[in-house]
């Protein structure tokens, strides 16, 4: 996690990882979905709320993956 520095690798915490995961959902909302014709935050789809919730869930899982990866790096780094 670049904004946390090397200290995060030595002691990974879940808050910054999930924050980054949720923060990365802005690119699909404002770049990818409009670029594919779905509008900002999937506003032109039949179920925009559902699409946004699915994106948030997916990116939150990505944040948890960052945390787990940080823990694995810490484990192998300490060996």
Q: What does this entry look like structurally?
A:
The chain is mainly α and 79 residues long. The chain has one domain (7-78). It is 71% helix and 0% strand. It has helices at 6-10, 14-23, 26-35, 48-78. Helix 2 packs antiparallel against helix 4. The longest helix is centred in the C-terminal third of the chain and has 31 residues, at 48-78. It starts with 5 loop residues before the first helix and ends with a helix. The mean pLDDT is 90.
Count of separate DSSP helical elements:
4
- What number of domains? 1
Provide the succession of SSEs.
HHHH
Number of strands: 0
Mean pLDDT: 90
Key features?
79 residues; mainly alpha
Question: Topology of this structure?
Answer:
Layout: H1 6-10, H2 14-23, H3 26-35, H4 48-78
């Amino acid at each position: 996690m670049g904004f946390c520095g090397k200290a995060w690798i030595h002691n990974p915490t879940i808050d910054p990882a999930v924050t980054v995961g949720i923060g990365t959902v802005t690119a699909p909302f404002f770049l990818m979905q409009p670029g594919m014709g779905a509008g900002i935050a999937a506003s032109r789809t039949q179920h925009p709320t559902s699409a946004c919730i699915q994106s948030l869930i997916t990116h939150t899982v990505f944040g948890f993956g960052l945390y787990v990866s940080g823990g694995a790096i810490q484990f192998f780094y300490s060996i």
